[in-house]
Specification:
Blueprint (H helix, E strand, L loop, with lengths): L11 E2 L2 E3 L6 H17 L5 E7 L8 H15 L8 E5 L5 H15 L1 H14 L5 E6 L4 E4 L12 H18 L4 E6 L5 E7 L3 E7 L5 H26 L1
Parallel strand pairs: 1-3, 2-3, 3-4
Antiparallel strand pairs: 5-6, 5-9, 7-8, 8-9
Helix pairs in contact: 3-4, 4-6
Length: 237
């Protein structure tokens, strides 16, 4: 194994198995066994999420895919049985599911992050405005908008808005955080808060908020700033 040092200090390990390449299963098995031996020598025990990837029938027969899934489970599941372990069937054609999987992996690993998300969910109930908290790519983390699903991706126009504002933040403001907004003649208003270039908070209002809702929104925004700091700190550590 080349450069084993890059695996030191791993909190979460995501081995990936290509379901369209069953001829590589045995080679992958040996690689994973060697990797786990390395963790044992270093007295480390990361949480493991095995991705059984390419679970799709694009240019691949369903019968072969089912056979490969069964074979992969027989080969790989036993390897990780002594770890905090789970396996997930994934596909590049299911972007919404993948986004939710990565979100859940991140949040489950860091208790503080989970607390922030749960706190945000409770705060949103008391704010008389539509609020969507997402990552900078538009993958929804939490919200209070009917018809929007956590773990899924925002609709195209809102993603484009976030992307355009993020470009302005980076190239014009040259800062890691920024606020953008717009208001029409009828008083409808949209705000976008970007925190640490990774978290976006969309606020959509039909008019001025009452003092209680505004205070709670300000508290939520402050918590999201801390949330972004925590994510940066977690990845740095």
């Amino acid at each position: 194994m080349e450069k084993p040092e890059i695996f030191r200090g791993t909190d979460v390990l995501i081995p990936i198995v290509d379901l369209h390449e069953p001829n590589t299963f045995e080679e992958a098995k040996q690689y994973f066994i060697d990797l786990l031996d390395l963790y044992r020598k270093n007295n480390e025990k990361p949480k493991i999420f095995l991705f059984l990837h390419k679970y799709d029938v694009e240019d691949y027969q369903k019968e072969l895919l089912d056979t490969n899934v069964r074979k992969s489970k027989e080969i790989f599941l036993d390897i990780f049985k002594d770890y905090d372990f789970d396996f997930i069937l994934t596909s590049i054609y299911e972007q919404d599911k993948l986004a939710k999987v990565f979100r859940d992996i991140l949040i489950s690993q860091y208790a503080e992050l989970k607390d922030h998300v749960e706190k945000a969910e409770k705060q949103l109930d008391d704010i008389k405005a539509k609020v969507i908290i997402a990552d900078i790519s538009g993958n929804v983390i939490v919200h209070n908008v009917q018809g929007v699903s956590s773990g899924l991706t925002l609709r195209g126009d809102l993603r484009d808005f976030i992307n355009a504002c993020n470009t302005v933040r980076e190239n014009i403001f040259m800062s890691d955080s920024a606020k953008f907004g717009g208001r029409d003649a009828d008083g409808k208003e949209i705000e976008l808060h970007i925190f640490k270039y990774i978290i976006s908070v969309l606020v959509m209002k039909s008019g001025d908020l009452d003092r209680d809702s505004q205070d709670k929104l300000n508290m939520l925004l402050n918590d999201m700033k801390l949330f972004a700091d925590l994510i940066i700190s977690a990845h740095t550590d």
